[in-house]
Amino acid sequence: MTAPALVRRNVAEKGSASAAPRHTWREDLIGWSFAAPFVILFGIFLALPILAAFLMSFTSFGIRDIQNPIGASFVGLDNYAKLLSDAKFWKSLGNTAYFVVVGVPLTLALGLVIANALSRGITRFRTAFRVGYYLPVITSIVAIAVVWRFLLNPDVGLINMLLRNFGITGPDWLASPALAMPSIIAMAVWRNVGFAMVVFVAGMQAIPAMLYEAAAIDGAGRWQAFRYVTLPMLRPTILFMLVITTIGYLQLFEEPFVMTGGGPLDATLSVTMYMYQQGFPFFHQGYASAIAYVLFVIVAAVAFLQFRFLRTDDAPMEATR
Amino acid sequence: MTAAQARSAVPAVPGRTAGQRAPSQWWIYLLLILGVLLMVGPFLWMLLGSLKSQAEFLVSTPTFLPKEATTGNYQRLFDQLDFPRFFFNSSVVAVVVTVGNVLFCPMLGFALAKLQWRGKRLIMGLVLATLMVPAGITLIPNFVLMRNLGLVNTYPGLILPFLVGPFGVFLTRQFMYGIPDELLEAARIDGANEWRIFWQVVMPITVPVLATLGILTFLGSWNSFLYPLVMAQEPNMYTLPVALATFATGQYQADHGMLMAGSVVLVVPVLLIFILFQRWITEGIATTGLKG
Hints:
The complex is a heterodimer of chains A (321) and B (292). With 321 residues, chain A is mainly alpha-helical.
């Protein structure tokens, strides 16, 4: 590489906003040769479908249109208008909100408690505990849902078997409209608490030990150290986890699919599950795309709030020219 | 004074020494152990259930331990149902998807972190914008696309949409951004072109990140459900989660022993990977917030 090129590169990498770097066609070619495989696959199977789903949501796309997608008839905002008066859609939205509003705080609170116990309460067997709590996170949700359905089985399930030992006749958890969603929430919290724990433990490791020393000198106990040192220092991590977990929980699907089929009486029908039902057994793909886009907008709003409130200096992804 | 306290460099203050953790207490261990039992319990229940015969589920008082352990459920999985085939399908998809991500994502990550080219900002913006997109949104258009390409019920149909992903780019780009430019300049002065620099300087340094990416991608693909549920419509292309969910919600829904055995087959490979690589996984997760 020639000396002027080196200088120019260095200038470019210092990143002064005014001096927009001029690239030679050679540099462009090298850059794109690295980017090409990703960009092609990403374009065809991710970017294009996101756009296509948007367009499809304004059509009456159905099973006859699959052979000739361009021929689908445009219906304007009909699908969205229909959603507004679709009681089943509102039910699915309400169920999903229930799952998120109860499930997310429970997951984070428990994750925080366990992380704090691991980081500050004990000194031995940390890895063993971490592995134990993390076990369900890496496991297939389908397998977990199958196992939990069996655990919750009213006749041969472990939970009612244990209750019977205390003389209690347990309910048919998943067949009760009132208990089905709480059961699914319990399972989701059980599965995801380890994820929150691992992220919180990492966040706690980054808190300078001298803060705890100072707190101890001031006579702070375990609870006060948690309340006045850990919690404030962990705020960005907690907010981050809040967003990630909310986005994940908004997409609830496998659990009701395997455990309840969305029932009883649609008590566990989630938005993604309703989209799947409309799109596949019924082949109302235009309508299903509208449902998918409503969920997309909700998720995007949550993500936007994250970028709005969580802008921290640890984001070198932003530091690009 | 305990050994830990004695080691503390900070002078003692009355009651407790600064510069150390609060003393461990037995009740914290006890609660944590109870918690771990709650976590592990369902897995034990699954394993024990898979060893029970169907007759044992019909008796009026079910038990935790099988009265007579049997491998009959596993035999039925392999003889009557096509579980070896599902296992093979899941493996092929997960391995190819992992290779694609571990190869193509760092290539773009490198171009974004260390090269100057027109279109870079646009691509970076697109990758960032799709980080949070719900999987459901691309499902229907991809199905229509695959149907028209004749790829429904094929391996390419299951694999192609997942061969690259924004998370892999995010992860590798973040790491490569921290590699000192001097290192690359030194190689350039020695006459290496960008491809040699990528393979011989950057990729070797990036191995830990690639390991994390590879493991998480494999787990994600192995466990994925919604997309293969739609794309594998014939039983011969089912992946393990699709097969298990189909049987669990269909004709075998009361066959608890066999469903538990199917769950074991789905879960055990992942547990082995986790136990072997748990450090890569939990540390990778912690630094990226990326879920397996």
